[in-house]
Amino acid sequence: MDDVVKQAWQQRDGAVVLTTVDSKGMPNSIYATCVGLSDDNRIVIADNYFFKTKQNIEAKSKAAVLFITKEGKSYQVKGEVEYLTSGKLFDWMKGWNPTKHPGHGALVINTTEMYSGKEKLI
Ligand SMILES: Cc1cc2nc3c(=O)[nH]c(=O)nc-3n(C[C@H](O)[C@H](O)[C@H](O)COP(=O)(O)O)c2cc1C
After folding, report:
1. What is the pLDDT of residues 37-55, one digit of tens each?
2. Burial of 109 (0-12, 13-18, 19+ CB in 10 A)
3. Which of 52, 105, 108, 109 sits at a 20 to 30 Å CA gap from 92?
4. Cβ(65) to ligand 1 under 6 A?
C-alpha cells in the first residue's frame, strides 16, 4: 500500500484538490500546494487559509485528495483526517511550509482508499 501512494505522489504535478463535506453532505473543494508525504506515507496539507475546510474537519468530515501526474494520470486518496497543532508531523510541516504562510495546523489524511480513475488501488 505504501509504495503505491509514494510512487504516485512522487510523480505529482501542480496543486492537489482537497475535498471535505459538511454535516449535511455538501462537498467543498480547495486547491492546495503546501503539501507533503510523511515518512509513513500520509498526505499532509498545511492549513494556511482553511475556512470552510476547517469547519468541515471540525464536523468530522473525511477527506479526498485528487492529484495528477505529469503524464496525465489521476489519483484519488480518501481517508479519515487528523488536524494537528503540535507534535512531530506538525513540526515537519512547519519545516517545509513557506514562512510567508501562517501554517496554523497540519491536516493529515490517513489513507483508507486509493483510486486511479475507476481502478481501485487500495
Ligand atoms: C493554487 C492554490 C494553492 C493553495 N494552497 C493552499 C494550501 O496549501 N493551504 C491552504 O491552507 N490554502 C491554500 N490555498 C487556499 C485554498 O484553496 C482556499 O482558498 C482556502 O482553504 C479557503 O477555502 P475554504 O473556505 O473552502 O476552506 C490555495 C489556493 C490556490 C489557488
Report:
1. 999 999 999 999 999 999 9
2. buried
3. 52
4. no
